[in-house]
Amino acid sequence: MLHRIILSTIVLYHMSILTICAQIVNNGAAITISSGATLRLETSLLNNAGTLQNNGIIEVAGSFTNSASFTSGTNSLVKFTGAATASVTSGSGIFQHVELAKTAQTVQLTDDMTIQGQLDFSAPANKLILGDNDVILGSAATITGAGSDKYLATNGTGIVRKNITQSGTFTFPVGDLTGSRYTPLTIAYTGSMTTLANIAVKVSDVVHPSKPADADAFITRYWSVSGSGISNYNATCTGTYLSDDVSGTAALIKGASYSSSAWNYAGASGSTLNVVGTVSALNGDFTGTNFFGRATLKVFLAGPLSGTTMTTALNSLLPLTTPYTAAPWNAPSVTVTSVPATATDWVLVEARDPDNPATIIAQSSGFLLSDGSIVAPNGSSFQIKNALPTSIIAIHHRNHLSIRTPAGLNLVTPALHDFTTAGSQAYVNPAISNPNMHQIGTVFAMWAGNANSNLNIRYTGPFNDNTVLLNTILSGSKSAILSNVYSLGDFNMNGTVRYTGPFNDNTVLLNFTLGGSKSAIYTQHL
To answer: Within 13 Å of residue 407, how many CA atoms lie on the same side as its CB?
Structure first.
């Protein structure tokens, strides 16, 4: 049976301790707990009317409900104890210090809770459950004691909001309601703050609803981050996730932010159960996915080039699946339902380690358009999954010599890299005597004629391209003509393979590429 004490007036002075086993209901009295005094309640406190002034300690084993006047002194503390779940109704009151010291139980908010001093999780398995309510932390507020089974559970629309006055770092100790699922987000932020500046966080234990369609490595949770009153905002976010949040290969999961319907991978990295990223959008989400590097590239193939555009004669013959899955490329397969109308051919783009350019980090196929631009298989802006934020980029084509950038490119905020403007736009191997690209008029292009897709173009000698063209592709007949084909021997990429006659591929190989020298050998600069 619940007993109630209805008070008229009570004052607890310094060093006094009052323990009450019944429920306290204040219907209009003035209750004052002086500094150094403790009011210990074995059940609940209901402040329905009157005033409650706490300058000392209120220990409550039940619920704390304020619907009148509640004020907190600078060093005051409200401590939640006992073995039962409890709720907090703040009303218009503001807490100074709050301690969760219950016996493996939770405290549920029924409205917003503002804390100016310290929120301390002093006992195991204590959770402050937000539901659809917010926890508002003053600019000087701190949170201590949070850990694997004690944290703020954001199980509804409620957020944890931290008021800030200057650049700094704050860990939002958030997690799931069920079990011990602590997944904090640490934000190291800079910017210019107004008097109302704040950052707010909640975590959701679900896959981000706009996860990139091609992502096959990601975490099944994300943090919503919002804020206001900050200009020139920039932050490094570090999110901690759980092992069962991982979908796919954990080593490929990097920090990813989402804002204004776009993904950003600035500063993206990851380690065991952590994702890191640099965020400049004040309102958005943070999670972990594959890193998707963006590259803006322009390149010409010498074979189909005429002036400053390339033919699209092969467009209707292009396969719907990338041709680069086989050796020597061994790239991931990708299949499309249609080919861009201005596509010249498929190309393969590699991301390589800038510290060790021979090391291939990632490969992605795309379409090379007639103007030299490279687009994703679906025709959108080109991306390279699982690249490094700064990567050397190599371009491969099935019957042209490969090229690569001299140095790493920024794949987070990419600028156009135009291979066509100068030989210096591609890496020059000092050990190779032939030029790295074929200069045609004022533009530069990849060398044509590599019928066997190896490292060089040659007319005679071992593994030469003339033999592949004549004997392998044309079955030894110089008069043979293959029409409407997608073939390695089609050096000018007009859909026809022939050894003699107009627009023949032997002339492209011998005269156009090798300058008429049957002994010349052109080697790619990788």
So the answer is: 2
